[in-house]
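thought: fold this chain, then report.
action: predict
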Amino acid sequence: MIRYRVNEQFNTVQGEGYHTGTPASFIRLQVCTVGCPWCDTKYTWAKGGTLMKVEEILKEVKFKHVVVTGGEPTYWNLDELIGALKVRNHYVQLETSGQNNLKGTWIPDWVTWSPKKNLSFKAPFELMRVVDEVKFVVDRDLTLEEVWDCLDPILEIAKDQPKHPHITMMPEGSPPTLESMEKAMTYTQALSELTTRPVRFSDRLQYRLGVK
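observation:
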């Protein structure tokens, strides 16, 4: 029986991306080696957290929508956790940097890939095949050319799925600055003219509401 190293759990609303505003139970797993300089969860990078069995984790889950995040959750084999959540009819969203393939056989209901410059905005082919949402963190350095180069391979993989994946432009900052919000909005509008895929701007609702 696997034990997961859990940094924290909380019940709130999803503040980012396609599912913004949805009541959600977050499971934040420990360990990440990507090292983004603007990361707002640097406390998950090292080997801290608490080793927990799945049944212990499930006791803290309140809502149908469950977000498994990190850290980098694909550091772990998530089969036991996702399987237990699905048996209880939860909707499982995975948030990943795209550093690794999924290690198990269970596929989450929704996979959000947030491409990272430290990973050259790339992800393994097998992971890209199951991505539902590509969520870019728009900082001062991100260029539209980098966004489009990143999207090109995943859109080729999904060429027979014209409304998939969803593309989200989200401003960097804790909370986002006006500059990053304006840039993210500009990129959202520009991408909407370049592709027929669904493109949206995402604020970071948690900072507006003052919640997790």
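thought: worth noting. The mean pLDDT is 94.
final: tokens above.
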